[in-house]
Write a structure and sequence with these properties.
- By secondary structure, the chain is mostly beta strands.
- It is built from four helices and 31 strands.
- It has a seven-stranded mixed sheet with strand order 11-10-9-13-18-15-16, with no helix packed on it. Strands 23, 24, 26, 28, 30 and 31 form a six-stranded mixed sheet that branches. Strands 12-20-19-14-17 form a five-stranded mixed sheet, with no helix packed on it.
- It is globular and about 65 Å long.
- It starts with a strand and ends with a helix.
- It binds CU-O-CU linkage and copper (II) ion.
- CU-O-CU linkage (C2O) binds at residues 58, 60, 99, 101, 227, 347, 349, 396, 398.
């Protein structure tokens, strides 16, 4: 068993040399420490809250037991001064992350997020590996966090002009010529989409949210909506090259618009020998369902005017939608319908899904995901299997302001009909807290 102790506390965050803000950090740092785990090895995280407000930790993407999911559907909030012990055994290798599931919009913006890397057998051999956690910060004129709220932020989600890699504004990265690196890229921003490019040069996608894909896919860009991850092979490059790690212009139909912006500069130094060994076949991902499998549920995401709140972000017409339970072992095929005119990153807690189609078109390759972008006015069909981890789960838009506004669904995974009944009653009862 591996034991990790982690503390959330107030800290001073130096996001650029000599420039600091008052922030929150796991162990006082942003991002929090990288948690390293192994497939099948039990992990115990003893978490202490030293913040002036309650919080929890959600293990984003990990297939943990329901009680360890870190949401207020499954545990009381961890109050200031309290300790909560999370215990689970990671079943899958991949790039995951952890973050609070309480007052998310503020707590993540203030710096509470970190990477969790799970390693398995038979991974590609590379010359070097890096974790790149992307984020942005919205500051005021004094260089402190800009106030939260306002209609534009409610609509677009919070985006800032300071672009960060591993908590530092536009850092310089150095790599050796002739080598191949594995970059585990995590988009931890509240709302920003990153259409990632590395100086326009080809890279190879080898993994997504739920680990390796079947074979490397060459690309020159990849879209990372908020909360999404991608594993890519970068290089080899030549000595003296300088590449801009940037987010290309992406219009997600927001009030504010951005062009292409830089996240980091990659400088290529003298050559070093390479030992990289990348198999042509990375692993098998059996199809969960036929591409034209009939859906057994429709989840409608919409945005509408609200007298009281200006704008409402809804699932099936309500905030904090109480969705029907699903049964262990029963294949789920869901149509996620985005009725609105803007993009939303859909996130399912605790289970991986396969995207069967977007507006009837199959994706470029098969993969395991826990986040998928929903383009405006679209239908995305996903398939997933509720394995035997009964309890209360949720799905939501991962633009944190939309999530907070209630663009989410709560549902139970249950073993039998009797439990289906009980759990849904329990949930209705629980519902008023939101
Ligand atoms: Cu990163 Cu409820 O999610
Ligand atoms: Cu959204």
């Amino acid at each position: 068993m591996k034991t990790v102790e982690i503390e959330a506390r107030q800290t001073t965050w130096e996001y650029r040399p000599g420039q600091t803000i008052d922030a929150y950090g796991y162990d006082g740092q942003v991002p929090g420490p990288i948690i390293e785990a192994r497939v099948g090895e039990p992990l115990e995280v003893r978490f202490t809250n030293r913040l002036p407000e309650p919080t929890t930790i959600h293990w984003h993407g990990l297939r943990v037991p329901a009680a360890m999911d870190g949401t207020d559907d499954v545990q009381p909030l961890v109050q200031p001064g309290e300790t909560f012990v999370y215990r689970f055994t990671p079943p899958d290798a991949g790039t995951f992350w952890y973050h609070p599931h309480a007052n998310e919009a503020e707590q993540l913006e203030k710096g509470l997020y970190g990477a969790l890397v799970v390693r398995g057998d038979g991974e590609p051999i590379v010359d070097r590996e890096r974790v790149l956690v992307l984020d942005d910060l919205k500051l005021d004129r004094r260089g402190q966090l800009a106030p939260f709220g306002g209609l534009k932020q409610r609509h677009d989600g919070r985006e800032g002009d300071v672009r960060l890699v591993n908590g530092r504004a536009e850092p310089e990265l150095r790599m050796a010529a002739g080598q191949i690196e594995r970059w585990r890229v995590i988009n931890a921003a509240s709302a920003r989409y990153v259409r990632l490019s590395i100086g326009g040069r080809p890279f190879r996608i080898i993994g997504t949210d739920g680990g390796l894909i079947e074979q490397p896919v060459t690309a020159t860009e990849v879209l990372l909506p908020a909360a999404d991850r991608i594993d890519i092979l970068v290089g080899p490059f030549e000595e003296g090259e300088t590449l801009d790690v940037q987010a290309l212009r992406y219009l997600r139909m927001t009030m504010g618009r951005r062009g292409t912006e830089s996240f980091a500069t990659l400088r290529v130094g003298p050559a070093e020998p390479s030992v990289a060994l990348i198999p042509r076949r990375l692993r098998e991902i059996p199809a969960l369902a036929a591409l034209d499998a009939a859906p057994n549920r429709t989840v409608k995401m919409s945005v509408g005017p609200s007298l009281r709140r200006g704008l409402d972000f809804l699932v099936n017409g309500e905030r904090h939608h109480q969705d029907k339970p699903v049964r262990v072992g029963e294949l789920q095929v869901w149509d996620i319908v985005n009725k609105s005119l803007m993009d939303h990153p859909f996130h399912l807690h605790g289970f991986f899904f396969q995207v069967l189609s977007v507006n009837g078109q199959p994706p470029a390759f098969r993969s395991w995901e826990d986040v998928v972008n929903l383009p405006p006015r679209s239908t995305t069909r996903i398939a997933w299997m509720p394995d035997d981890r009964p309890g209360n789960w949720m799905y939501h838009c991962h633009i944190l302001e939309h999530h907070e506004a209630g663009m989410m669904g709560h549902f139970a995974v249950a073993r039998e009909d009797s439990m289906l009944q009980q759990t849904s009653q329990h949930q209705v009862h629980h519902h008023h807290q939101h």
